[in-house]
Amino acid sequence: MSIDRSWRFTYLNHTAERYLQQERQNLLGRHIWQCYPDLVDSGYYRIYQQTAATGLPGRHTDYYAPLDTWFEARSFAHDDGITVLFRDVTREHEHAAQLEFEASHDYLTGLPNRRKCVEALSHAVAEAASPGFTHGASLAVLFIDLDHFKEVNDAFGHAVGDELLRGFAKRLLAILKPDFFAARVGGDEFVLLLRDTTESAAEAFAHAVLSDLAIPFEACGRSISLSASIGIALLEEAPDSAEALLSRADTAMYAAKSSGRFQVRAYDGALDRGMRDRLALRMDIREAFAANQFELHFQPQVALADGSPIGAEALLRWRHPERGLLTPYAFLDVLLDSPYESILVEWLLNTVCQHIRAWRRSGVFVPRISLNLSARQLLGAGLADRILHIARAHDVSPAMLDIEVTEDSLVSDIEQATSVLAALKQVGIFTSLDDFGSGYSSLSYLVRLPIDTLKIDKSFVRARVDSEKASAVIRGIVGLARSLGMKTIAEGVECQSQAEELKDAGCDSIQGYLVSRPLDSEAFAEFMLRR
Ligand code: C2E
Ligand code: CA
Ligand code: CA
Asked: Which tens digit of pLDDT belongs to each residue from 265-292?
């Protein structure tokens, strides 16, 4: 279209008629700003004015709502006034918007990605720092990490994994308040931003997310429930930053994970030190295997009937160069959460078999050694064959080995666990259920499990003195084990009266400080000789 120096239309082509939604004869000779008063002061208005005043070309792109179209207008000056060329740039614009969306969102779930998350957080932090922001209420960041998601992916395939992530994102959006914000910041990591909240409200919300997760997801025809670990960080007094908030929430999430998963933890300063220690431990563990710093101690087990030794439990120790002799509580969760988890199994089996052989050579007969395995160690591929292979290499009978597993490692995948236990039994390896009574203790699975011995948890033994009920539980467990054809051993037995009561209850054997503390290999051999 062309416009003269007094802003009257002098020319319009067909496309301009369509864009301006008016026929040519209705516009020619008329004043543009009187026909389109809404456009006064718009971007178009400014470039036309500018081109008319300076003679320089102008360019402006804008959304034009009546036609739901993006236009690019370019204005040129000439002797009679100005001419404007319009171009429909809707497709280009949508493409650019799509690119922007893709750069800031996660394609799988449609949630904002890490970049967008940091941006939104920075914005919220700046807003909270500005005057007039309500005090008392604050900003909370929740860092959510799905537990064992890698295993789910490995077991069921990536299609199922993707479906689960999408399902989780959908559930998150469904429970979020409108001005809250959710992002996917990594494979199985999500971040929520809660505004105007308090620590306890944020914690309550995190627990709601966890219970929501426990409801099974339908993915590719399977029903799978997830669990997660959630860390919470609250905005602190200025100066605080989005990155600092995120990293505090991340630290708290790690603490939640290491205190057993399916947990919520709020950040506090002590966690940072704990994290640094964990990192240092992780590094040290690498060295420890190479430098032979791990060793096994053996805690004797004796029959209650006559006090004769029936074997020992192998317990892991770490002779740390700076921190001295460490028990598993100081490092086991870090180790089991590292690539060394499976290496430990081979090391454990080889070391136990070497000791058995060395004792035998020096004339000490040890009937049986129990080893502790974590859930993942138990469910790792071909355990029975691996044990058999190592035992044969050391000329040790599989019947001299007893694998201790805990209830919670069984329930995570009861089918698989049952078949592993059956395979162990098949090749003559014994199995024990550790810490019995402290976990799920579901009778329905106990009946099906091929287990030789129930280890009565030390909490019942310890409670015995002051609790009638604990004593009833012990009798119950012993009766149950008998009817299922299992033996019983009580652990943590520290005094004679406990031993006597256990004997009365019909328990087969005991382990605990009363008999002996865990001993190093030589001391254990001496113990066996004396007995
Ligand atoms: P657990 O299997 O329940 O082992 C028994 C723990 O109770 C041992 O702690 C032992 O020293 C302690 N204990 C023994 N008698 C008594 C007593 O009379 N009173 C009290 N209060 N405690 C007693 P430890 O050696 O520190 O081991 C802790 C846990 O670490 C073990 O608990 C076991 O779950 C795990 N663990 C130990 N060695 C290994 C290993 O080689 N592999 C794996 N995966 N876990 C291990
Ligand atoms: Ca044990
Ligand atoms: Ca135990």
From this structure: 999 887 777 777 777 888 889 889 889 9
pLDDT at 136: 56
Q: How far apart are the first and last CA of the chain?
A: 110
pLDDT given for residue 318 in this prediction? 95
Residue 100 confidence (pLDDT): 74
Scored b (16 or more CB within 10 A) or e, 488-514 reads bbbbbbeeeebbebbeebebbbbbbeb
Number of neighbouring beta carbons within 10 Å of residue 333: 17
With a cut of 70, list the residues of the chain below it in pLDDT. Answer: 131-137, 439-442, 463-466
Ligand 1 contacts CB of residue 296 (under 6 A): no
pLDDT of res. 75:
92
Ligand 1, from 298, 316, 515: best to mutate by most atoms within 8 Å of Cβ? 316
List the CATH code of the domain at 278-530: 3.20.20.450
Cis peptide before 398 (omega within 30 of 0): no
- For domain 2-92, the CATH architecture is 2-Layer Sandwich (3.30)
Alpha-carbon distances of 93 from 46, 74, 133, rounded to whole Å: 21, 16, 36
pLDDT at residue 48, as a whole number: 93
Cα 358 to ligand 2 centre (Å): 23
Mention every residue, 6+ apart, whose C-beta is less than 8 A from residue 54. 77
Cβ 390 under 6 angstroms from ligand 1:
no
Which residues crowd ion ligand 3, with CB under 5 Å?
A: 434-435
Give start-end residues of each CATH 3.20.20.450 domain in the chain.
Answer: 278-530
Where do you find CATH 3.30.450.20 in the chain?
2-92
Q: Output the furthest CA–CA distance in the chain (Å, rounded).
A: 120
Residue indicated by tokens 């909490």? 459
The confidence score (pLDDT) of residue 479 equals 93
Looking at the chain, the domain(s) classified CATH 3.30.70.270 span 105-267
Instruction: Mention the CATH class of domain 105-267.
Output: alpha beta
251: amino acid identity, one letter: T
Give residue 61's pLDDT.
87
Quick one: which atom of ligand 1 is closest to the CA of 406? Answer: 34
**Under a CB-based contact definition with an 8 Å cutoff, are residues 275 and 332 in contact?**
no
Q: Tell me what pLDDT residue 465 has.
A: 52
